Amino acid sequence: MAATYISARVIKHNNDVFLTPELSVGVIMPIPTPGAGGQIDGDYWAVPITNFGITTGFNFVPTTPTSTIEEAPTPQSFHVFRLVNQYLGTHNSWYAVGTSTFSGASPSAPGYIEVSQDAECCDESPRTLPTAVPALYSCQVACEFNSDGNYFFVTALPTDQGTYTANGYLNGETLPQITGATGGALQTQLNAQWTNIGSPSVAITWTVNANGAVIGVITDGSGADVLCLTITTA
Description:
The protein has 2 helices and 15 strands. It is mostly beta strands.
């Protein structure tokens, strides 16, 4: 068993979480194979943590390598595995994107064990760990209400660079992607496609004001509705 390292997208190394304000997740870094002292310490769902609409880190929920995305705790959760290594009294741990062994996806993806085997045996066509993660959207709970006593969501348009594109989830249900050449056009599409969603249905009236604020007033819903949303422009 040769001592070597493989490349992985790591989202947490020891106490350091790799998450930028722009919600870029993880960094590519080498992690040790079993021959270099790497030891698997479980498979997990990485579940984004949101505080006041800002994604600040991850909770790690135990799972199996073969669990599928349909079993994920939230739409934005993704597979990671925990790896530990203790060398000369120094303890290190990594949460890396992927699974410990073959995944339950279709087609199945190789995990840490298979990728390590290829690296340690100098395979001519070594397999690699996945590096893709789902796009993360900031989430908010509609727990505050306006002067009319209605709960609401609020966000802002980015600086206009062309066409606005909105993506999101409402109470865990994927919302259709919508676009608008202007704030007014986006408002029209929001009111056409981002209302009366889910079961029980949530009715939302959307407004994009002159200052670029995007406000969704819930006319039929509760103070527990959760919206995960991103608006981009290009």
